Amino acid sequence: MPRSLNLVASRRRRKKIINQAKGYWGKRKNVYTISKNAVEKGLLYQYRDRKNRKRNFRRLWITRINAAARLNGTTYSKLIHGMKQKDMQINRKVLADLAVHDADTFAAIVQEATA
To answer: Rounded CA gap, 112 and 79, in Å?
Structure first.
């Protein structure tokens, strides 16, 4: 009995990888074995950096809140502690946006938290 080859499925599988490698340089874009490694590595970076983006934004928000809090005579840690004591539930993203764009509202929040 002759060997059966599913050429349609294997071609589709290879074509999917080659299409994902569009824009890569050299053999990475058109040689299947090389592009497979490059695409897998790219997907790993993509997965890792989705986590890192969240980490980096949180660091940025904390830095902005701390700078604005110091302008209002307190520190980041004292502000967050005071907000937890007063049960003020404003997340760091919103707090950082207020610190940058609406200094008066941020100052009122600092007054309420440290009072």
So the answer is: 10
Do residues 28 and 21 touch, judged by C-beta distance below 8 A? yes
The three-state DSSP-derived secondary structure of 56-90 is HHHHHHHHHHHHHHHHCCCCHHHHHHHHHHCCCCC
Fold of 27-114: c-terminal domain of poly(a) binding protein (1.10.1900)
Overall pTM > 0.70: yes
What's the CA angle centered on 61, arms 55 and 62, to 5 degrees? 90
Helix, strand or coil for residue 91? coil
Q: Could you read off the pLDDT of 12-41 as tens digits, one per residue?
A: 999 999 999 999 999 999 999 999 999 999
CA distance 26 to 21: 11
User: Beta-strand (E) ranges in 4-110?
Assistant: none
